[in-house]
Amino acid sequence: MQAWRVHRNGEPSEVMELQETDRPTPGDGQTLIEVRAANINFPDALLCRGQYQVRPPLPFTPGVEICGETEDGRRVLATPALPHGGFAEYVVADEAALLPAPDSLDDAEAAALHIGYQTGWFGLHRRARLRAGETLLVHAAAGGVGSAAVQLGKAAGATVIGVVGGPEKAGIARKLGCDLVIDRRSEDIVAKVKEATGGRGADVVYDPVGGDAYAKSVKCVAFEGRVVVVGFASGVIPAPALNHALVKNYSIAGLHWGLYNTKDPAAVRACHDELTALAARGVIRPLISERVAMAGAADAVQRVADGTSTGRIVVLPTGAAR
């Protein structure tokens, strides 16, 4: 089969190599899956760089979520077992963790429903306890993770403020349903949030960026607000000033979605049922900006790494259903 392999750490476009290799062999409790669509996530770039919290042995294949077909004909969502990631024609995954692909979504959309939307749902509902009528501030609102949070926030009845970088991304955020869009390159995030909320600030902040985004967020978070730390796409991990959290009375909540797979797998399945129902009603739908052939995967992962992409880029292996 064909698979993208990483033999040394570095930038994705430099270290990912498309090669012929053997199909992976399922272990106990695992299933072989033909990949129909593999969604690109920022962690795929971190895996290539050797900067992710999980470091598979070299060589490995990146790709942390797929939509595929099992040998008995089931269409499923899966997180492949590294080092045999999803940018390949076949993967293996734990049978117990497979989720049925929603009938309302095509393969590319289904592949993008899993990690980003689960992260959004757990972040907004389990960690932040977002309530209808509250104001939600979403950083990188036109990106893969941010766009999911925007849709889930609107579904929960929140007023959603999206922060983006540039007019093109601002247009996408508006189409996603943001009530207000702030272009961080030309507008003052703190002033705009306070103006929009009558000085109160945002009740919930969803931050997959870190760095300056976090610094601005805590300046415009509301009394008893909640800041959900999802990731550090900026490359800068902030050092929270706990005295500031104390005097302003806000909470900082971390979210590592992968832990729920081991700590509370029943909650993951319940979340998937909720996401499937929302997708069937048309309330949420992954924003797929590009569908690329297998040969274009390395360049696509690099665009995600560089922060120039919008929505989700999905790799479609040769011969896979579209």
Would you mind describing this structure in some detail?
The chain is of the alpha/beta class and 322 residues long. The chain has 12 helices and 15 strands. Strands 3, 4, 5, 6, 7, 14 and 15 form a 7-stranded mixed beta sheet that branches. Helix 2 (42-49) packs across helix 12. The longest helix has 16 residues, at 265-280. The mean pLDDT is 95.
The overall pLDDT, averaged over residues, is 95
Order of helices and strands: EHEEHEEEEHHEHEHEHEHEHEHHEHE
The count of helical stretches stands at 12
Q: Report the helical percentage.
A: 25-40%
Q: Based on Cα principal axes, name the global outline.
A: globular
Alpha-carbon Rg, integer: 19 Å
N- to C-terminal distance: 19 Å
The main sheet comes to: 7 strands, mixed
Strand content of the residues, in percent? 25-35%
Structure class: alpha/beta
**Low-confidence runs:** none
Number of strands: 15
Give the topology, please.
Elements: E1 2-6, H1 12-15, E2 16-20, E3 30-39, H2 42-49, E4 65-70, E5 75-78, E6 90-94, E7 99-100, H3 107-111, H4 115-127, E8 135-139, H5 144-155, E9 159-164, H6 167-176, E10 180-183, H7 189-196, E11 202-207, H8 212-217, E12 221-229, H9 242-248, E13 251-254, H10 258-263, H11 265-280, E14 288-293, H12 297-306, E15 312-316
Helix pairs in contact: 2-12, 4-5, 4-11
